[in-house]
Design goal:
Elements: E1 14-23, E2 27-30, H1 31-35, H2 42-49, E3 53-56, H3 63-78, E4 87-91, H4 102-110, E5 116-120, H5 126-139, E6 145-153, E7 171-181, E8 190-193, E9 201-202, E10 211-212, H6 214-235, E11 245-248, H7 253-265, E12 273-274, H8 278-281, H9 288-299, E13 307-314, E14 318-325
Parallel strand pairs: 4-5, 4-6, 11-12, 11-13
Antiparallel strand pairs: 1-7, 2-3, 6-7, 8-14, 9-10, 13-14
Helix pairs in contact: 3-4, 6-7
Pfam families: ACP_syn_III, ACP_syn_III_C
Family: Belongs to the thiolase-like superfamily. FabH family.
Pathway: Lipid metabolism
């Protein structure tokens, strides 16, 4: 009797990012604006989280609509058409509804026909998780060209007068196009979670708002995330001195600076360029890394081919990081 055997497609050497795009809503809310509706002021906010302003979506801005705009820009940047995309992955923790999922809505808006599509929720680590999923799918032969989107409308899930959260969150979307490559342009992911702190950032019921234990998250992030970033560099077979740009999740400027300081003291170059988009975008969760990187490109602060270290972290508490070359 002949035994049937399952076959798998031949593995691909690697994947790379070939396009980036982002979207920030037009409405800007400054710290002075917030001081009119709650007990706060610009100095208090900037000294604690480093944020000067954040972008807030209009009623017509949704996770899917913002993601589609960012996705279209990433496709244009890559010089590709919707027909070139075979998979769409969306990272978000603030979708308005669970069904239909955001990735299929974005695909429909962009005219991407019959892609594999799914959403994932790893909160503020979501973009790094989604990028890893795209890389793994391509290297395993399940996909060839993937649109990865991080999109969030956090203000819709935030109590507008809660000083612990309303000063932090903003809205927006970022996207990347990932394709197969003869030489890896994305390193292995270093990911995990801290199951002892699942309640540190939470939404308790379907109609509730974000609750954040700010001090607990701050202590955890400033202690735990630099080692994750270092591990991601090691997995890529690189040294910290090889990294040109650090793009962490834009949670809090003090956290961003603390992580950068630890990496430099561990061997990263003193001239390491550090994304600080938190100042004018606020915390946009899974959208923050692609928004920050794309805005650095626009400003000329990062160039094609340079080595980027990205690390996301947030509710769960989840974390993930990887090294990749800037498109």
């Amino acid at each position: 009797m002949t035994v049937a055997k399952i076959s798998q497609p031949a593995p691909v050497a690697g994947s790379k990012i070939v396009g980036l795009g982002h979207y920030r809503p037009d409405k800007v809310v400054t710290n002075d604006d917030l001081s009119k509706i709650m007990d706060t002021n610009d100095q208090w906010i900037q000294s604690r989280v480093g944020i000067a302003e954040r972008h807030v979506g209009a009623d017509t801005d949704t996770v899917a609509s913002m993601g589609a705009i960012a996705g279209a820009k990433a496709l244009a940047d890559a010089g590709l058409d919707p027909s070139d995309i075979d998979t769409v992955i969306v990272a978000s923790c603030t979708a308005e509804t669970q069904v239909p999922h955001s990735s299929t809505q974005i695909a429909a808006t962009l005219g991407i026909h019959a892609p594999g599509s799914f959403d994932l929720n790893a909160a503020c680590a979501g973009f790094c998780y989604a990028l890893a999923a795209a890389d793994n799918a391509i290297r395993g032969g399940s996909a060839r060209t993937v649109l990865v989107v991080g999109s969030e409308k956090l203000t819709a899930w935030t109590d507008p007068v809660d000083r612990a959260t309303a000063i932090i969150f903003g809205d927006g979307a970022g996207a990347a196009v990932v394709t197969a490559a003869d030489e890896p342009g994305i390193g292995p992911v270093a990911w995990g979670s801290d199951e002892t702190q699942t309640q540190a950032i939470r939404i308790e019921t379907r109609d509730a708002s974000f609750i954040q234990e700010g001090q607990a998250v701050f202590r955890w992030a400033t202690a735990a995330i630099a080692p994750v970033a270092i591990r991601a560099v090691e997995l890529a077979g690189l040294q910290l001195a090889d990294i040109d740009v650090l793009v962490t999740h834009q949670a809090n400027l003090r956290i961003v600076e603390a992580i950068a300081k630890k990496l430099i003291s561990s061997g990263a170059r003193p001239d390491l360029r550090v994304a600080k988009d938190i100042v004018t975008s606020g915390n946009t969760s899974s959208a923050s890394i692609p928004i920050a990187l794309d805005r650095m490109r626009e400003a000329g602060d990062v160039s094609p081919g340079e080595m980027v270290l990205a690390v996301g972290f947030g509710a769960g508490l989840t974390y993930a990081g990887q090294v990749f070359r800037c498109p």
